[in-house]
Amino acid sequence: MLQRDCLVVDDSRVVRKAARRFMEGFGFTVREAADGSQALQACRELLPEVVLLDWNMPVMDGLTFLKAARAEFGNGQPAIVLCTTEIAFEKIVEALDAGAQEYVMKPFDAEILGSKLAQLGLLQAAA
């Protein structure tokens, strides 16, 4: 069976741990990064199928990572889901314009995350 790979990028260890638990529950192997710079390096080592990306982080924020990843790896891969507390419509549009495929508001749970992954074709929708 094909190994599914996810990179969770968040400066909060608690959020990374929760997201890891959700994604492992969906059958993904999970790696973690604490900022966009670490995430870019992790993508260069092994491009994941999906990235769960926080917006507000030190060193390199999520939007900067998103633009760099799209410039380096192209628009299709990896699928990038922005997971953030940013609620302004303009911010959502900015993230989608920069190449994010989906947007999840924090706090999120496995059901919300699973529905977004299903919309992206990364999970079978629950029957």
TrEMBL record:
Pfam families: Response_reg. Keywords: Phosphoprotein. PROSITE patterns: RESPONSE_REGULATORY. Coiled coil: none annotated. The modification 4-aspartylphosphate is found at residue 54. Residues 5-121 form the Response regulatory domain. It comes from the Bacteria. The keyword Cell membrane does not apply. InterPro entries: CheY-like_superfamily, Sig_transdc_resp-reg_receiver, ST_Response_Regulator. This is Response regulator. It comes from Falsiroseomonas selenitidurans.
